Amino acid sequence: NAGVTQTPKFQVLKTGQSMTLQCAQDMNHNSMYWYRQDPGMGLRLIYYSASEGTTDKGEVPNGYNVSRLNKREFSLRLESAAPSQTSVYFCAAGGGAQGTGELFFGEGSRLTVL
Amino acid sequence: AQSVSQHNHHVILSEAASLELGCNYSYGGTVNLFWYVQYPGQHLQLLLKYFSGDPLVKGIKGFEAEFIKSKFSFNLRKPSVQWSDTAEYFCAVNAQGDYKLSFGAGTTVTVRA
């Protein structure tokens, strides 16, 4: 029982390159989330998916796209990476009915954009 | 939209000292409140949560938090910290019925043996 699994754990990109962060959960939660964590700023919500087939913007969606492939998987894509996107990215699942439940987080993906 | 502020960026304590971390939120409606912890090298995990009822909630590892609605606060407390409580602590809030969970900037707690 892995919970929430993210890949890759580390990635270095050059400015302008693209990449996709993968996230999968085996907990059967309807809702999934992508956050970024930056020093002194806590976690900021990029995108979320309340249920399979829906996605919505969070606080900082610019420069990102997401796909809710199925109930298990929620990917985050950077089409043209910028140094400002250097961060640690966390995927989460959970939230329960209308956000009342616990979020379960993956171990994070550390992205550096040169 | 709701926002969350945590007053302390870094707190340094000795073992057995008491800990209190401040958290205030701005939102006029009904909210759900959470404290998450991130131990060094690990992912975030839930410490405790408040939805309704008794405003004093108890979580794991001896932590508790008190919701004071009039002050829009949800402060975290532990009477006697241990070295293993060294971690980063995040307060989070969402409006009831909203899937979006907003986090504060976090407080790094260092406990010296």
Can you describe what's shown?
The complex is a heterodimer of chains A (114) and B (113). Chain A is mainly beta. In chain A, the strands form two sheets. In chain A, strands 2, 4, 5, 6, 9, 10 and 11 form a seven-stranded mixed sheet that branches. In chain A, strands 1-3-8-7 form a four-stranded antiparallel sheet, with no helix packed on it. Chain A starts with a strand and ends with a strand. In chain B, the strands form three sheets. In chain B, strands 2, 5, 6, 10, 11 and 12 form a six-stranded mixed sheet that branches. With 113 residues, chain B is mostly beta strands. Chain B has no helices and twelve strands. Helix content of chain B is 0%, strand content 54%.
Quick overview:
The complex is a heterodimer of chains A (114) and B (113). Chain A is mainly β.
List keywords for this structure.
heterodimer, A: 114 residues, mainly beta, 4-stranded antiparallel sheet, 52% strand, B: 113 residues, 6-stranded mixed sheet
- Large-scale geometry of chain A: globular
Q: Alpha-carbon distance between the termini of chain A?
A: 36 Å
Work out the strand percent of chain A: over 45%
Low-confidence stretches of chain A: none
Order of H and E elements of chain B: EEEEEEEEEEEE
What amount of the residues of chain B lies in strands?
Answer: over 45%
Describe the largest sheet of chain A: 7 strands, mixed
Number of strands of chain A: 11
As residue ranges, the low-confidence spans of chain B are: none
Q: Most extensive interface: pair and counts?
A: A-B, 26 and 27 residues
Q: Summarize the helix and strand pattern of chain A as letters.
A: EEEEEEEEEEE
Structural class of chain B: mainly beta
Helix content of chain A: under 10%
Number of DSSP helices of chain B?
A: 0
Q: What would you call the shape of chain B? A: globular
Q: Please work out how many helical segments of chain A DSSP would assign.
A: 0
Which range best describes the helical content of chain B: under 10%, 10-25%, 25-40%, 40-55%, 55-70% or over 70%?
A: under 10%
Mean pLDDT of chain B, nearest integer? 93
Sheet/helix structural class of chain A: mainly beta
